[in-house]
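Appendix B: complex inputs.
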Amino acid sequence: MEHPNGDASSSGAAQNGQREDAGEYKLKFCTVCASNQNRSMEGHLRLAEAKFPVISFGTGSLVRLPGPSISEPNVYKFNETSYDSIYRELEAKDPRLYRANGLLNMLDRNRVVKWGPERWQDWQIGRPRVEHKNDQGSDGMEGGIADIVVTCEERCWDAVIDDLLSRGSPLNRPVHVINIDIKDNHEEASVGGKAMVDLANSLNKVASEERAKIGASAFDSATGLGRSGFDERVPDVLAEWQERWPNLPSTWTLAWF
Amino acid sequence: MAAAAPVKTLSVSEQIQQLNGARNLALENAVYYDKIVKGILPIIGPSSPVELRRWGAEFLAESLSTPVLSTRDKENLTVAVLETLRSLVESPNEDPVVLRASVIAAASAYPVIMRWIIHNSYHVESWEHISAIKSSIMRIWDSAATPVRLCCIKFAQRVVLAQTASNGTEQKYNGLDVSLNMIPANHPLLDPRALEAEASGLLDRMLGILQDNSSDALFVDATLNTLSILIRSRPGTSSRITSVVLNFNPLKLANSPMTPKNKVLVRSMEKTTRMLLIHLLKRDQGNPLSGRIQQQIERLMRSRAEIFDDANRKRALAEQPAANYGDAKRQKLEVGVPQLQIPPLPPGPQSLATLFTLTNNVGLQGFDVTQVPAPFAARICVKTLASIDQRILDQAINGIRSRLGAFYVAAAAAAAAAPPPSEQQPAPINAETAPLGIDEDDDDYEPNFYAAEDTEQILNKLDTAPPEKPVGQNTEASATLAALGQFKLPPPPSLDAEAVAKVGQVTASRVFGPLSVLEEPPLRKPKAGINRLAASSYDREAWLTLITRLATRSTAGLEDVNGKVKGEETGDALDRPRMALSNMIREMLYNYVLEDWRRRIEVAVAWLCEEWYNDQLTKRSQIDAPLHYEKWALRLVDGIVSYLTAQDKVLTRFLAEIPELSRALLGRLKSLCSDPTTVQLALTTLLYQVMMRPPVREIALDTVADIWSEYEEARPLAAKYLVKWRPGFIESQTRAMEAGNGDTNMAVAA
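Resulting structure:
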């Protein structure tokens, strides 16, 4: 008895040191845009800074970034190219152009958030993400599952839903998929990032409240509100959020992983 | 069981930290799952603290569904946890979080256990456990907390999936491929027909929410999002589910008030339904219902557009303020009149500014218009008024009017402290903006009590409004409003004579403005007969009539009756700018005629007729006013004469039609005879007067005679007429001349 006891307390102390807000309940988020570069990464960073567990993806077939002309985009493969390598390539190609259009700035931000752009369709949902320890927002995402998916464009929402329908929901886990229409430029992405954090905070507040109704006692005394759960309150939160962000039209559904 | 041992001496949070460590181990290496899962089972049972049960149930749900373990690996694990899972599900009044995770775990366990039983029919115990779990879940499906009930739907889906025949198109992983096909017909425990019947019943229960056309978006979405794989890979369910989905109307809720939440719900259900249909159309092209699916998708998109169009449009404008400044690419081109939203005023005293504020933009509301320089503001106003759509202006005016009406009604109601009649209730209350709004809960709507409620609400509003004195006394608001009625324009600056003259000139020139716009009269117009009324046809001719009469009626008061007197007193040089308005108009009329005299000769005739008539009136009334006819007739002839050519028969007509001819007037024709080409014109014109106007025959003949004697070149023609109309004249003249000539001849000879 002695030995494992001491063992446990030491490991407990170590974990305490790692996570100061260990007691606080945090919803897990997943942000999605087309190329996992601008809008989803802005959201990823903002949510991570707000201490939410978060991962991010793109739904496009390839990572597309603006090139010297509209017909010559810079194209990269998902999952195989790091932000850092893209940064270095573009910097070598035409530093003036890519600094002026904000790409280098964006990639510079992205490369400190995580390694590289990931494709939604290639994501094996539920596969542990223990190898992503250095990603921002990885804390809490070890299980590889999110409670809330936030897409940044109707097209991406459609792609996510279609993909989830195709997968056949093997994990049996409900997930709220929320689209926020954000235009694909740096300014709008920044506004969208703020709106995402606002949404995350609002949802998390409700989720914590529901989670705090511990045990059968809460369930017993349940009349109306006591019985409601987090899921039920999501549309309310979203409606209130939409009033606050009328320029970011949203769509929501409850889907399954 | 190393993990279980220390538990008893640790606090719950310490235990959870320890458990998290164990979980991380499993996440890093799936090999540990088996050990860890089995190790934690003793500490997560129904008797453990709720935190541990939550952690445990969630860990079970995660473990049983993890993609890193194969179905075979999971069999072992799943069989091991069944008993614990059963105890959690069956435990009365279990915590919803525990229950939810347990149901998720059970959904993952079900196909795995079924597959296990198919191959290991001796293990009756497992089948008993999972059957008990199933019936517990069926029992709580309708009564548990919402998150649990949602997962019950998913559990039912997994049961249906496992207990119906597959077409083999599903992915072979995570138990999705477990189906009725795998059960041998003679299985000792599993009866395929009974299982299929059970699945059919469960499917009915799942689809019930759609068949009832529920508006509970959460359950509708959750159900719809489980159906895809059933339709695609379980042909036995396919057509049934598809037709239920096709008959489901996700837009039903749109008929109730569109609160922000209802918008979210309607949009969600519509989009989820449509996504499922689009998905089926794409992935399941063999579906015999494809045609209907396509139709339904289009119908949904149309209805959605109708319902949300208005909102989208508004958003589009708010989103793109740049659109107003020529961002043509993003501009929406619309033909319809945009509806102006004029929210009624909140109760309480209002400033004049709020009364007239129509914008919802907070930034604009705060803008102090008085900072704009007045001339600039005036220009903006004029330009805006010139370009604004009349219908929008009307909407705005009516909006303000109803606000004012509402204000007075509310004030009157407060004064009388009596319920106003319901139809007096002012501007409709906008549910989204009214602060003390109508109860938004649609269920409470009782039409019979509607009016009563309204009255009560108004009174409530008035009660809660800041104290207001009756209208008779000076409340802050009525004072500001009353100030409006008493406003007087400052007296205009006094005008001196020159300014009057200048302004008069501008006025006169404006009178001519419409002439260029008015259309030409048709070439042949029906004769209106003797009863026609002048200036009643509103064409160019009518306007000209108006102008000529404006110029020529001294009775209109435009005449400078005392002009002569003043002229004598102050001298011509000073008097000129004071030219009377009528003379200014005459001057312009003259210019107008001369600009294109060949075509405007009729105007000249009409004008001169009016002048002549006016002169007659002046003479008769013996006012000491100047006469104009002669003067202007002479000016007109003088103006025309120098431009006349041999072809200009209008001269003949002009002189024939003007009311009075004088010696001086006809004398002007003489000058034509100095040009051989116009001699004939002049003489024919005179001849016409001689023949057709007996009163002026004599003066016309005198003129001809003058021509005969003054212009050598005109003599033959003039002689011809004179011979006919004044016989003996030439002879007498010739004789007189010969006498005269004789003298001169003699002188020459001498």
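Chain A is about 45% helix and 15% strand.
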